[in-house]
Amino acid sequence: xxxxxxxxxxxxxxxxxxxxxxxxxxxxxxxxxxxxxxxxxxxxxxxxxxxxxxxxxxxxxxxxxxxxxxxxxxxxxxxxxxxxxxxxxxxxxxxxxxxxxxxxxxxxxxxxxxxxxxxxxxxxxxxxxxxxxxxxxxx
Length: 139
Fold this sequence. Notes:
The relative contact order is 0.24. A hairpin with a 6-residue loop joins strand 1 (2-5) and strand 2. The chain is globular, with a radius of gyration of 15 Å. The protein has one helix spanning 28-34, and strands spanning 2-5, 12-15, 21-25, 39-45, 49-53, 58-62, 67-72, 78-83, 89-93, 108-109, 127-128, 134-135. By secondary structure, it is mostly beta strands. The chain has one domain (2-135): Metal Binding Protein, Guanine Nucleotide Exchange Factor, Chain A (Beta Complex). It is built from one helix and twelve strands. The termini are far apart.
């Protein structure tokens, strides 16, 4: 099991590997929700994700017509993302895990939205366009 939770410990969850994917997201929504240049997400089949503590503390925010973000109501830690664009998946912020995920990031998504002040030299594919996952020229 992969365990994780929020900063104050009120919200706790478990993930049963294997996960589906891991990627760095550069969309403006993720950047603003996390106050960071990008957010690393782990895609998990919903059936393999389990909230084990703090359901009453979990706050859900509808950030767009198709997406909901969940955070801890006590400490504010951003934790989860769910969207009708990816039904049956829970996206978990890798920074909320107690240890390493079962896979390394494989791509940069929504890279055409990335901030110019943070360089990326990791050799991972750079994806973007309307879906956020289309190959970008030069990437």
